[in-house]
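Aggregate trends can hide what the representation actually does to any particular protein. The sequence in question and its structure tokens are set out directly beneath this paragraph.
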Amino acid sequence: MAAGCLWRRLCQGSAFSINYASRIMQKQCFLPHSDLMGVRLAGSHVDTQEPKTNPLVSISDEPETLYKRLSLLVKGHDKAVLDSYEYFAVLAAKELGISVEKVHKPPKKIERLTLLKSVHIYKKHRVQYEMRTHYMCLELKYLTSSTAAVYLEYVQRNLPEGVAMEVKKTKIEKIPEHIQEPVWDTLPQVEENEVKS
């Protein structure tokens, strides 16, 4: 009885009549009216307890790789685009809690090309074209590999058109065992004999 009342309530707000809805239900072999409580209807939201597994998230037992420094060298021909991208990259680093060591701009590179304006004569009439390449270097310090991967993916996906990026990572590694102890501690002692003259 309660299922029938629920069914009528659901159909009252819809554009079709109850008779039409019940005919559709019978044609599509849905459960009878007494079992309507377990049926998911369009427009009703039922939370199911399904285990949510994300295939992109992986859990591993191996330790994180630590980076002492991550240098991003960004180059492009438009200075305004690089300035805007610098603001974006620094803001993204601060939002992720990454410490920004410094942001500096190496000198720009100017490439000039001189061409004759005239085809046959007038060698004095020339035209000069130049390409200016602006650079911006952003240095981040003390990152883990997962933080670096997330930051780099986010920053590289939002790279503007006509801008190239070069990434250099400086990894922190443990000192190998064969050079942890100084070599001179393992050498045998040599006795010195004094020569009398």
